[in-house]
Write a structure and sequence with these properties.
mainly alpha; 8 helices; 187 residues; 76% helix; 0% strand
């Protein structure tokens, strides 16, 4: 199967983001006290590693190897939003990021002439990403007595603003690749 260099780049970009997420959540899961959040975080990091494998397998099935990319989407978040200072902020940042991932993957699913191997990979990952949104949303609700609903919403708003800035910068930086795939990014 033929895979354009732009498609190869985008699938490699997805792969790199999933690897970064897995490493981050793995380190976090290792430090959390035992309990429901640690259990869900452990499942989450395992899912992210599995998603990286799905993208690696997808590329291989399409006759390509992953490109080596210098950084991931998440790497830009800290500069845009500042370092999360507690578990609530980590979860708020993750909730915003996971929403972005789902929106991007759904947008990609709508690309004209989408290769069935890519579609199959996207469908598998989107199903698991939905659970990520659910468990984090529930964990944030359970943290309301400790942090207050307003403070959680402020964190979500802060990270949402950072996400928009990072997304716009990433879209601009890679506009040629995205345009070539007919996946014009929008907010």
């Amino acid at each position: 199967m033929n895979l354009s260099e732009n498609e190869r780049w985008l699938l490699s970009f997805y792969r790199m983001s999933e690897i970064s997420g897995s490493l981050f959540f793995g380190r976090l899961a290792r430090t959390l006290p035992s309990g429901p959040v640690q259990m869900d975080m452990t499942r989450h990091f395992a899912d992210e590693a599995q998603h990286a494998r799905y993208w690696t397998d997808c590329l291989d099935r399409l006759g390509a190897s992953p490109l080596r990319l210098p950084n991931s989407y998440q790497d830009q978040y800290i500069n845009a939003a500042g370092m999360p200072v507690n578990l609530m902020e980590v979860l708020a940042l993750t909730q915003v990021f996971e929403r972005r991932v789902v929106r991007q993957y759904v947008k990609h699913m709508g690309a004209p002439g989408l290769n069935p191997v890519i579609k199959e990979t996207l469908e598998k990952i989107i199903d698991e990403e939905k659970w990520h949104l659910e468990w984090i949303g529930q964990a944030l609700v359970e943290l309301e007595p400790k942090y207050g609903q307003a403070r959680i919403q402020q964190a979500l708003d802060r990270f949402s603003a950072a996400d928009l800035a990072v997304y716009a910068a990433t879209a601009k930086e890679h506009e040629e690749r995205v345009d070539a795939l007919s996946l014009r990014l929008s907010h």
